[in-house]
Amino acid sequence: MSQKLSQEVIEKIRKEVKDGKSKYQTAKELNLRKETVYRHTKDLPSRPCGWPGIRGETLELLQDILTKGYAVYSNYNTKQKYITLRKYFPTICKVKMYGKNIFFLEDKSDLATRVFLENIKRKIISYHELRQITRVFGTSLSRQEKNEFLSKSKVKKSGKNKSFERDLYLKNDDSLAFFYIRNYSST
After folding, report:
1. Which parts of the chain fold into alpha helices (H)?
2. Cα first-last separation, the chain
3. Residues near 168 by Cβ (< 8 Å), separated by ≥ 6?
4. Positive or negative CA dihedral for 118, 121, 126, 128?
5. Splitting the chain (187 residues) into consecutive groups of 10 residues, what average pLDDT does each group show?
6. Domains contained in the chain, CATH given
7. CA–CA distance, 10 with 91 (Å, rounded to integer)
C-alpha cells in the first residue's frame, strides 16, 4: 500500500537526503515507510555507509604486519580484515594452518615461514609437513635449515650449550641488562 504524499513532503524528503541524511534516517525522522522515501529519492545517490579506510582491529593487524613483516591471529573473524587490507595493499598474503591465520608481506614470506616453524607447539614435525608448510608459504629452506627444524626436538642440549647459544645471541645487544648478563652472570 503506497502512501500519498503532498509535494511539500516530497520536497522535504529530497532536501533531507541531499543535505546528507541517509534515506533510512529520513524515513524514520519523518515517520514514513522507508520504501516511500526510497521511491521518491531513487535518482539521488545514497550516503556512503561507514568510514572509508582502515581503522580498529584492521589497523592493528596492518601495524603488526608492517613492523614485524607478519602477524598471527587465531580468531576466525579475519576474512573482512584481509579483504580490506588487500584492497589497499595487494602484496599482503594470508595463509591458514593449524587453526591460525598468518598474514605476511609477499617479500617477507621467508621470515614468516621461519617464525611459523619456530613457534609450532608440536614436538615432532615430519619432512612431509615441513615441505607442505614451505609450499603453502611459497618459499624454500636450505638443507641445513630443514635439518634444524626436523631435529629441533630430537637433540636435547645441555645447559652448557644453551648458555653458549645465549651468549652468541646477546653478544651484539648493547642494553644495560644484557651487558650485566654477559659480564657478571658467569661469575
Report:
1. 7-18, 23-29, 34-40, 57-68, 79-88, 109-118, 127-137, 143-150, 159-170, 176-184
2. 91
3. none
4. negative
5. 79 90 88 89 75 78 84 78 85 83 85 79 78 84 81 52 48 53 54
6. 1-49 (1.10.10), 57-155 (no CATH), 158-187 (no CATH)
7. 48
Beta-carbon neighbour count of residue 171 at 10 Å? 9
**Gap between the Cα atoms of 8 and 180, Å rounded:** 81
**Cα-Cα-Cα-Cα dihedral sign, residues 168, 170, 173, 176:** negative
Radius of gyration for the chain, computed over Cα atoms and rounded to the nearest angstrom: 29
- Rounded Cα distance between 184 and 178, Å, is 10
The amino acid present at 156, given as its one-letter code, is K
Beta carbons within 8 Å of 9's beta carbon, 6+ residues apart: 30
CA distance 68 to 160: 31
Q: Which residue, among 80, 59, 83, has the nearest Cα to 71 in the 3D structure? A: 59
> The whole model's pTM is what?
0.49
**The one-letter amino acid at 137:** F
Residue with cell 652448557: 160
β-pairing verdict for 100-105 and 70-73: antiparallel
If we measure between CA atoms, which residue out of 8, 38, 40 comes closest to residue 25? 38
Strand partners, 70: 104
Per DSSP, 41 falls in state: T
Three-state DSSP class for residue 42:
coil
